[in-house]
Amino acid sequence: MAVEVRSAPGLSAGIPQKLFDDVFNVKGATHTGWDVAPDGRFLMERPDSTAQAPCIQVIEHAADEIARRLAPAN
């Protein structure tokens, strides 16, 4: 979003305008996913369209499976 701000006579703000019509990574665990170049352009990271969504694996009776794998071979 962007908004025009005037400081004279007095502080006033205009109507917010949408800057981008796309999906971007705006925050990650180790980086923000965006930056502003010295010439004022926005540099933004797009999500990896080939990445798989995170999944959860549920393992029932995990203790039994661990014990079976650790048991000495007969």
Concise account of the structure shown:
This protein has one helix spanning about 60-70, and strands at about 5, 10-15, 35, 40-45. With about 70 residues, the chain is an alpha+beta fold.
Overview of the structural elements:
With 74 residues, the chain is an alpha+beta fold. The chain has one domain (23-74). The protein is 12% helix and 14% strand. The protein has one helix spanning 62-70; strands spanning 5-6, 12-13, 34-36, 42-44. The strands form two sheets. Strands 1-2 form a two-stranded antiparallel sheet. Strands 3-4 form a two-stranded antiparallel sheet. The mean pLDDT is 79.
Layout: helices, strands, pairs:
Elements: E1 5-6, E2 12-13, E3 34-36, E4 42-44, H1 62-70
Antiparallel strand pairs: 1-2, 3-4
Order of helices and strands: EEEEH
What count of domains describes the coordinates? Answer: 1
Q: Gap between N and C termini, in Å?
A: 68 Å
Low-confidence stretches: none
Form type: rod-shaped
- Physical arrangement of strands within the biggest beta sheet: 1-2
Number of helices: 1
